[in-house]
Structure formats: C-alpha cells, structure tokens
Design a protein that fits this description.
This protein is an alpha/beta fold. The chain is built from eight helices and twelve strands. It folds into two domains: 118 residues, Response regulator (Rossmann fold), CATH 3.40.50.2300; 99 residues, Orthogonal Bundle (Arc Repressor Mutant, subunit A), CATH 1.10.10. 35% of the residues lie in helices and 20% in strands. A five-stranded parallel sheet has the order 2-1-3-4-5, with helices on both faces. It has a four-stranded antiparallel sheet with strand order 6-7-8-9, covered by helices on one side. A three-stranded antiparallel sheet has the order 10-12-11. Helix 6 crosses helix 8. Keywords: Cytoplasm, DNA-binding, Phosphoprotein, Transcription, Transcription regulation, Two-component regulatory system.
C-alpha cells in the first residue's frame, strides 16, 4: 500500500464491472477506502450507511443517470463529485459541470490521472479559505468564512463548497478584476487553457443563486477579455 496519500473514503458509482474492479484495485493500492455502487437509483440510500469524502460518478447508469444524480446529490452530500464518461465533447463536459460536478474525466481514464484528480479535489476542499478572521459585508450580503454561510438580506443562500470558495475569492478582492488565469491558479492550481469552462459554470450558478441578472450581470460582472469583477456597491437590494 502506498502511504503517501491520505485515507480518503471513495464511493465509486459504475456499472461496468471490469472497469469498476480496475479502479477499485488501483485506488485501494493508493491507500483509499472504496465502496462500489452499480446503480444510480440506490446511491442516495448508500450515502446513509457510507459517508464518502468524494463520489466518482459514471453518467450512463441503470436506474438514475449520473447527470440527474448531480442535481440531487447536493441535498445529501457536500463533498466533491467527479463525473466519468465516455462522452468527451466540450458540450458534454460543460453540461456535466453545469449540473453540479466539480470535475469531469473522459473514459478510459488513466488510473494515475484519476488519483491525481481525486487528491486535487480533496486537497482543495480541506484547505482553509483565508486567514481572515472576519466576515465580509456588502450591503445586504454577508459572507462568513468560518461557518461558510451566506446571507442575502434575511435569506440564507445555499452554496456548494466550491461555489463558496469562488465567491470568497471574488469578494475578498472586491472591485478588482480577477483574470481567469489567476482564478484557475488560485482555486484549481492549474493554468487556464482557454477552453475549460469550470469557472464560467460556477460563476453562472453563483449569479443565479445570488439574484444577479443572468443576461446583464451587475453583481458579479464579466469584464470581457480580462476576467470577473465582484461589484461591492451592487448588494444594497436583496
């Protein structure tokens, strides 16, 4: 067993027996605890008895497909979701990220790459957001980095861990344009390749949840050719 990795608890949802066995064996050889679920419609029940740190989720599943599960899981699971699919077009990946996945790999996936993706997702989840000890307040918006709670007026806004992480990054540098390259390096520890849309999708979800105008955003602005800007003056009305 390789002891260089933490003992993560992984739930693998995959109906291809041969592939599932290969993934389970490889992850276990890297010190991870893995349980296998072969149907989509039994995943939520499995979460009651097994509390994983991360879910590896195939898209094409019997019972309930992976994309539908991505939309349902945030009500039951706060950890990262990594989608796996033989569907590898940009459109397929954007759709997967849009419904809530934190990452997307195309099958057949190299096992070493899969381990690296898992470690990266879980390392980011365990990292402290900032050393700041105070909340950020902008008009009706309040962001608490310790409780990881958001309030807009009298309403508590439900964000995923990655959405909160992105909002905190933008809000802690309010009024400044943050480039995609900077955001990718800070949050994902990778370079922006000009095609990846993970951050764009998360920005879109943040805008929707925070009452921004989707067509002409005024709270989290797109500065074309430069990046994104959190507008500190735009939060007076919830």
């Amino acid at each position: 067993m390789n002891d260089s990795h933490p003992t993560y608890r992984v739930l693998l949802v995959e109906d291809d027996t041969r592939l599932a066995n290969l993934i389970v064996d490889y992850l276990k050889s890297h010190g991870m605890h893995v349980e296998l679920e072969r149907r989509g419609d039994t995943v939520l029940t499995r979460l009651i008895s097994y509390r994983p740190d991360i879910i590896l989720l195939d898209i094409m599943l019997p019972g309930t497909d992976g994309l539908t599960l991505c939309e349902q899981l945030p009500d039951y699971f706060s950890g990262p979701i990594l989608l796996m699919s033989a569907l590898g077009s940009n459109e397929d990946q954007i759709r997967g990220l849009a419904v809530g996945a934190d990452d997307y790999v195309v099958k057949p996936v190299d096992p070493a790459l899969l381990v690296a993706r898992i470690n990266n997702l879980l390392k980011r989840k365990s990292m402290p957001l900032q050393t700041h000890s105070h909340c950020l307040n902008f008009g009706k918006l309040s962001i608490d980095p310790h409780a990881q709670t958001i309030r807009l007026g009298s309403v508590e806004v439900d964000l995923t861990a990655h959405e909160f992480e992105l909002l905190w990054l933008l809000a802690s540098q309010a009024g400044q344009v943050l480039s995609r390259q900077y955001i990718y390096q800070y949050l994902l520890n990778i370079d922006f390749d000009g095609r990846d849309r993970k951050i764009d999708v998360r920005i879109s979800r943040l805008r929707k949840k925070l009452g921004d105008n989707i067509q002409t955003p005024f709270r989290i602005k797109t500065v074309w050719g430069q990046g994104y800007l959190f507008a500190p003056e735009a939060w007076m009305i919830p």
